[in-house]
Amino acid sequence: MTFGIFKKRFSTIAQLRAGLDERAQIIRAREATIRERERVVEQREEEIATLQKCITRLKQELAQPPAFEKVIDLRATIVETIPKLSGWCSERKALLLSDLVLQNDVERALEIGVFAGRSAVPVAMTMRYLKRGQLLAVEAWSNLVATAYPIDDEHDNWWAEVDLAAIKREYFKSITKYDLTRHVSTLELSSDEAFAALSTSSFDLIHIDGGHSEQQAIADVQQWTSTLNKRGLAVVDDIFWPSMKPARAWLHATCEVVDEVCESEHVTYGIYRRRS
User: How far is the C-alpha of 248 from the C-alpha of 45, rounded, in Å?
Assistant: First the structure.
């Protein structure tokens, strides 16, 4: 083989190698482009997945009314329900009890003197709305218990004759009708019997509407406020009755007076906070 032929073949090989190198560079560049595009596609897919989650969440939120509208609906339900129940709890007081549950993270509430549930139902309805909380309702539904400590002839005669068995049936019917059984437990005991069983319990909110004789009223506020959690609240009914005067004085001496309300001659109540 002559030098000229060798040189020519070497040149051809060099050209082929250069061509292969160039194609390899092109392939590597295309591979880099493909990887970049794959990365962009993955990024876009992640963004699409995030957007889809946002859309799903927005659809869920749009399918339900805003929280403030739900509260308005709750209040409307309470206002509509209260007049249908026997008892003396006013619309304003029912809404106050509901607001206290909403605004104070009430998990455990207690009511002394349930009667037909006119004040227990708003509390339990609010817990049902919040999907948490438990109300312990205490009521003896006994004419003997209701008249154990005299008040005056008018009230003593009324409590001696009222059909408390019918009132008890109305109460349980309402608890079932308004789907409150998961949030209400009922103790058919007198206040003193209930305290003997619950003296070591603790509550965030207590509503005291039990016996209004001086003896029972002072016993109720002294006993049950001792079960309040730190900064817990007690709502006490009929605070301006003459027989409630010692109980009210004791509350003023030992608790923070949040508010005292006189809606009318027959509708009065106070809100008291346990001092830390």
Answer: 68
- CA–CA gap between residue 233 and residue 276 (Å, rounded): 12
Q: Any idea what DSSP says for residue 149?
A: S
Strand 228-237 relative to strand 203-208, pairing: parallel
* Claim: this prediction has a pTM higher than 0.85: no
Beta strands in the chain (DSSP E): 108-112, 134-138, 184-187, 203-208, 228-237, 255-262, 268-274
CA dihedral defined by 228, 257, 101, 80, rounded to 10 degrees? 130
**Count of positions (residues) in the chain:** 276
Give me the residue label for tokens 């209400």.
184
Q: Taking the chain (276 residues) in consecutive chunks of 10 residues, what is each chunk's mean pLDDT?
A: 62 74 83 87 85 76 60 94 97 97 96 98 97 97 97 96 98 98 98 97 98 97 97 97 97 97 95 89
Spatial contact of 119 and 87, defined as CB atoms under 8 Å apart = yes
Is residue 220 a contact partner of residue 210, using CB atoms and an 8 Å limit? yes
What is the Cα–Cα distance from 190 to 216, expressed in whole angstroms?
Answer: 11
Of 263, 226, 227, 260, give the one whose Cα is nearest residue 244.
Answer: 260
Whose CA is closest to 138, among 76, 203, 50? 203
Q: How many CA atoms lie within 13 A of 104 on its CB side?
A: 21
**What is the CB neighbour count within 10 angstroms for residue 231?**
12
The token pair at 215 is: 């003896």
> What is the per-residue DSSP string for 217-242?
HHHHHHHHHTTEEEEEEEEEE-TTSG
